Amino acid sequence: MTKFIVGVSGASGSAYALTALRALAEVPDVEVHLVLSEQARRTIVLETNHAPSDFEALAAVTYDDRDLAAPISSGSYRVDGMLVIPCSMKTASAVAYSLNTNLLVRAADVTLKERRPLVLVVRESPLHVGHLRTLLQLAEIGAVVLPPVPGMYARPQSVDDIIAHTVGKALDQLRIPNELFRRWR
Question: Which residues pair with 120 in a beta bridge?
């Protein structure tokens, strides 16, 4: 059984998280540990026809973002990697500089310190120099920065296709098999 943490921040893009959780639910022997930030709970309601509980239903284990004593806050709790989707610049900045004020950021920090894969689907545009420095800091300390950039070679026919492409690329970084998008041939 492989365990992955999925963190959902309050950045716009709740549909990316929902697609990722649905895809992970289809992969045999994958256990998802989910953390929704407080702002993510608000954004989910604003952007989708879903409730936070719909996201939580797709995970094996869910955590309160305020619980800094949760198992995933410790490096001794074994997981295989973490995906933050979407990842706000606030969350990216907190991870880059180890500002462990909530469980989502703490779990990401632990993932990095334990040299486990951390994929951040950073959702911000345009980027100013401070954002770029933060993203460089993240890359230098071992995170994969994967903004949701559509691959037009896949010839997307819908918004769902564009979302699936980003999610598929993120899952690829965690070595999770998927066929969410048309690959270059």
Answer: 84, 145
User: What is the maximum alpha-carbon separation in the chain?
Assistant: 46
pTM equals: 0.97
3-state secondary structure labels for all residues of 60-100 = CEEEECCCCCCHHHCCCCCCCEEEEEEECHHHHHHHHCCCC
Cα separation, 146 vs 144, in Å, equals 6
Q: Please give the Cα distance from 148 to 145 (Å, whole number).
A: 10
Residues in Cβ contact with 135 at an 8 Å cutoff, skipping those fewer than 6 apart? 92, 96, 122, 127, 145
> Over the stretch 154-165, which tens digit does the pLDDT of each residue have?
899 999 999 999
What tens digit of pLDDT does each residue of 84-136 get?
A: 999 999 999 999 999 999 999 999 999 999 999 999 999 999 999 999 999 99
Contact 121, 166 (CB under 8 A): yes
Letter for the amino acid at 67? D
